[in-house]
Q: What sequence folds into this?
């Protein structure tokens, strides 16, 4: 197991050869990879979202496909279609780019809901249906989607059902001045060496998944997770009367499952075989922020899901 810890550290060091900063995003991408959870990345253009995902796939030497979502994209452009072969007068399957290990759905909110929902079966069932036949996807399979939060013209908000399929939504922030200085120096060097080494095999990834699955979490912490998720639906039960006025819908049971898995991964990354309360608090915002649906009153008052989640975390105590 100690060897696996060192390999995770090695992943960070290899990605840092290309990407400056963004350790938080890398950490979350690895959580998704090792717990079979898809990740939604939200941030303005130019914050290395695409570069980080592409570099991660190289470090892991996994099959990678980038799909640029556009208004004219069709579902068949993602999953594939049936093609008539004139030589043998038969229909044959032409598989789409979703048949890969890591899928980067770039600017996913640029395409209509019909195209976005074409990913749903692959994300939930790890399979794709073309015609009358279902095809299993390779393992590991991870969908990493990006969306631009500021440019609303020509965009289509993700349906709630699809947002719920993402394990976490990560808000990618601007780099610090020091990081941006290093980015500028590195990327303006035409002789920049972008060679990186492979760290893990597919077998290693599945092995680490098994280790994370064996990380223990106490009954009290499992109940703590349930209390947090329940409070997003009915904040008044923990004394947050004002917050209850801002919420239309709380988080689904997928939030409880994903918070459990993500906290185990955090514990493993910190070389522990047991979960601490801080591990749960560490992932709570990312797991919940896209699952809480606020009303117009919250928007008018400038209330965010992050503020509500933090209020819940401050209010709920852990019962031993």
A:
């Amino acid at each position: 197991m100690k060897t696996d810890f060192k390999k995770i550290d090695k992943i960070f060091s290899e990605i840092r050869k290309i990407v400056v900063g963004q350790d938080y995003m890398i950490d979350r991408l690895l959580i998704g990879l090792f717990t079979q959870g898809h990740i939604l990345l939200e941030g303005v253009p130019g914050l290395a979202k695409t570069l980080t995902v592409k570099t991660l796939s190289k470090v892991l030497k996994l099959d990678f496909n980038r799909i640029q979502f556009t208004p004219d994209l069709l579902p068949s452009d993602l999953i594939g279609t049936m093609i008539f072969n004139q030589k043998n007068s038969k229909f044959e399957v032409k598989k789409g780019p979703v048949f890969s290990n890591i899928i980067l759905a770039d600017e996913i909110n640029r395409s209509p809901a019909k195209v976005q929902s074409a990913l749903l079966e692959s994300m939930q069932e790890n399979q794709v249906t073309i015609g009358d036949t279902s095809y299993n996807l390779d393992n590991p399979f991870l969908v990493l989607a990006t969306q631009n939060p500021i440019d609303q013209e020509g965009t289509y908000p993700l349906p709630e059902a699809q947002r719920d399929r993402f394990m976490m939504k990560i808000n990618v922030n601007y780099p610090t001045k020091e990081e941006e200085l290093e980015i500028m120096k590195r990327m303006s060097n035409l002789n920049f060496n972008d060679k990186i080494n492979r760290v893990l095999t597919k077998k290693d990834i599945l092995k680490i998944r098994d280790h994370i699955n064996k990380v223990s979490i106490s009954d009290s912490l499992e109940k703590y997770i349930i209390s947090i998720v329940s409070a997003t639906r009915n904040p008044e039960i923990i004394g947050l009367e004002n917050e209850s006025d801002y919420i239309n819908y709380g988080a689904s049971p997928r939030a409880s499952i994903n918070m459990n898995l993500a906290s185990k991964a955090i514990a493993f990354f910190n070389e522990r075989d047991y979960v601490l309360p801080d591990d749960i608090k560490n992932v709570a915002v990312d797991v919940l922020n896209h699952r809480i649906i606020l009303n117009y009153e919250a928007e008018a008052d400038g209330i965010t899901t992050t503020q509500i989640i933090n209020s819940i975390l401050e209010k709920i105590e852990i019962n031993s």
